[in-house]
Design a protein that fits this description.
alpha/beta; Udp-n-acetylmuramoylalanyl-d-glutamate--2,6- Diaminopimelate Ligase, Chain: A, domain 1; Alpha-Beta Plaits; 4 domains; 5-stranded mixed sheet; 15 helices
C-alpha cells in the first residue's frame, strides 16, 4: 500500500507529532523534499511531504506565505524540524495550515530528515516489489490458462476477473469470445489493437481501462501470439485440404480412395454437402492466396471444413436445408466486407459422395463467374460440363482463340475484348452494343471485323460465334469473373 502522512505519524521509530490535521493526510506521498527556500513551489510536482527547519521564515508573513505556496503546489504534508531555527512550530504556520487544510507535523531535533525520506523510499520499494510479484502471478495465471486447454475464452475470463471489468475479443466488428457474463453494449468500449501479422483486424475490448495497464498489455501479447498461431495453423490446414480436394475435383482419385480422403477431412462421404467458393478481387496472385488461407471466418462458418484451391476459398457446408448455404454465404460476405476486402461468393448444389463435391465445385465456380456479391447455384451449362472433364482441353482452346485479341488491346489500347463480350452478351446485336458502349454502329462493326481478322472467327456466323462465346465463358469461369 502507498505510504501516507498518517502512516508516517503512526511510525513509532520516527517520533513525529501531529500539529494540524490535513485534508490530504490519507493520500499517497510521492516523495519528500527538504528545503529552506522561501518559495520551493517551482521545484515541486505535487503530493510531496516538504521538510524544513524554517531558517528563512523569521516573520509571521513569511511563514504564512510559505504554507500558502505549499498548499497551492499540492503538497500533502509539512514536516517542521524544531530545535534549530524554531523551538516549536510557529503560530502563523499553524494558523495558515489550518486555513488551507495542510497537514503539519513536528519533527524532533533528534530525528534527521533523511530518516523520513528513507521511510518513504522503503514504502515505495515495498509497494513496487509487491506490485511486481502480483503482476508475475497474474502473468503466470494468464499463460497457464491459455496453455492448459481453456484457450482464449478461458484467458478472457481470467483477465476480466483480474481487471474487474467486462472483456471481449472482436474481429471485424464481430465478437469472437467474451468473458463469462460479458456482453458488448451499444456504446463503444475501449479497444486495444491485436497484431497477428495477417489480415485479422482483431481487437481486445474492455469496458473500463484499468489504472495499471501492464496486465492488459501482457494479455494483449498473449492473445496476439495465440491468434497468430491459429492463423498459421489455419493457412497450413487449408493448403493441405486444397491438395486433397484438388485431386477429387480433377477426377484424379475416385471411388473408395476418394471416400477415404473425404473422411480424412472430417466429412461424411455419404452425407450431402455443398461448396461455397469465395474469390477476392482486392488482392492478386500469391497475395490473394495468402489472405484467403489465413482469413478467419465468422461464427456459423468458423467450424466448417475450408480449403484453398485455385485462388478461391472453399467452404464445405453440410446440407441442412435449402437456406443453409445462403445463410453461411451471407455471414461470410458481411465478414469479408467488414475486413475491408472485396469478394464474390458462388454457391454450388448439395450432393452426396466425392463425385457430388466435385459437381458442386464446378457449379460454385460457374456461379462465381457471374461476379455478384453472392451468386446462387444454377444448373451447369455446357461450359461447366466441359470444364468438369479434364479430357477436354477447353482452357487451352480459350487461350488460343482470345490471345491475339488480348495482345491487340495491350499493344494498341483498343477495347476489342470488351466489345466482344458485350456483343455476345447482347445476342449479337451491333446496335445494342453501340448503345451500351456509347459508340457509333460503324465503330462496333469495325471492331468486330478486327476480331475476325485476329481470330479467324466471324462473330456474325453462328458456328464461329458459339466458339467465341465458349472461349470467353471459359475465360470468365477460370478467372472467377
Amino acid at each position: 500500500m502507498p505510504i501516507t502522512v498518517r502512516d508516517l505519524l503512526a511510525d513509532p521509530t520516527l517520533g513525529l507529532r501531529a500539529v494540524t490535521d490535513g485534508e490530504r493526510m490519507d493520500e499517497p506521498i510521492s516523495w519528500t523534499a527538504s528545503t529552506e527556500l522561501e518559495d520551493p513551489s517551482p521545484f515541486l510536482s505535487g503530493a510531496e511531504v516538504v521538510l524544513t527547519v524554517g531558517l528563512r521564515q523569521r516573520t509571521a508573513a513569511a511563514q504564512r506565505r510559505f504554507v500558502s505556496r505549499l498548499a497551492a503546489a499540492g503538497v500533502v504534508g509539512l514536516g517542521f524540524g524544531i530545535g534549530l531555527g524554531h523551538e516549536a512550530v510557529p503560530a502563523a504556520t499553524r494558523a495558515e495550515a489550518e486555513r488551507t487544510g495542510l497537514a503539519v507535523f513536528e519533527v524532533p531535533y533528534a530525528v534527521p530528515f533523511l530518516a523520513i525520506t528513507r521511510r518513504v523510499a522503503q514504502a515505495h520499494a515495498d509497494e513496487a516489489s509487491a506490485r511486481l510479484e502480483g503482476l508475475l502471478r497474474e502473468h503466470q495465471v494468464l499463460a497457464h490458462t491459455l496453455l492448459s486447454g481453456r484457450g482464449l475464452p478461458g484467458l478472457l475470463g481470467a483477465l476480466a476477473q483480474m481487471l474487474g471489468t467486462d472483456v471481449a475479443l472482436t474481429q471485424y466488428g464481430s465478437v469472437l469470445h467474451t468473458a463469462p457474463g460479458s456482453r458488448l453494449p451499444d456504446e463503444p468500449w475501449t479497444r486495444v489493437a491485436i497484431s497477428t501479422g495477417s489480415a485479422d483486424a482483431a481487437t481486445l475490448a474492455v469496458r473500463e481501462l484499468p489504472t495499471d495497464a501492464d496486465i492488459l498489455a501482457y494479455a494483449q501479447s498473449l492473445v496476439s501470439l495465440e491468434l497468430s498461431s491459429q492463423s498459421r495453423h489455419r493457412a497450413s490446414l487449408r493448403q493441405v485440404r486444397g491438395q486433397v480436394l484438388g485431386d477429387i475435383v480433377r477426377g484424379a482419385v475416385t471411388g473408395a480412395e476418394a471416400a477415404t480422403r473425404i473422411e480424412s477431412l472430417g466429412l461424411q462421404p455419404r452425407r450431402r454437402h455443398r461448396m461455397l467458393a469465395l474469390s477476392l478481387t482486392t488482392e492478386r496472385g500469391h497475395g490473394r492466396e495468402r489472405v484467403l488461407a489465413a482469413l478467419p471466418l465468422p461464427g456459423p462458418a468458423a467450424d466448417l471444413v475450408t480449403a484453398v484451391l485455385q485462388e478461391t476459398l472453399l467452404i464445405i457446408v453440410p446440407d441442412t436445408g435449402p437456406a443453409a448455404g445462403r445463410e453461411i454465404a451471407e455471414a461470410v460476405a458481411a465478414h469479408v466486407e467488414a475486413a475491408g476486402l472485396t469478394g464474390s461468393i458462388g454457391i454450388g448444389g448439395a450432393y452426396p459422395h466425392p463425385e457430388g463435391l466435385r459437381w458442386s465445385w464446378f457449379e460454385a465456380r460457374q456461379a462465381l463467374a457471374r461476379g455478384g456479391r453472392i451468386n446462387d447455384v444454377e444448373k451447369l451449362s455446357l461450359t461447366g460440363l466441359l470444364l468438369a472433364s479434364e479430357d477436354v482441353p477447353l482452357a487451352a482452346m480459350s487461350d488460343e482463340v482470345l490471345a491475339p485479341v488480348r495482345a491487340s488491346d495491350a499493344e494498341h489500347g483498343t477495347d476489342l475484348m470488351a466489345t466482344l463480350a458485350r456483343y455476345l452478351d447482347l445476342n449479337g446485336s451491333a446496335a445494342a452494343v453501340a448503345a451500351d458502349l456509347a459508340l457509333h454502329r460503324n465503330t462496333v462493326r469495325y471492331r468486330l471485323a478486327q476480331i475476325e481478322t485476329l481470330t479467324g472467327l466471324n462473330p456474325g456466323v453462328t458456328a464461329d460465334r458459339v466458339q467465341l462465346w465458349l472461349a470467353l465463358t471459359v475465360s470468365r469461369v477460370r478467372d472467377g469473373g
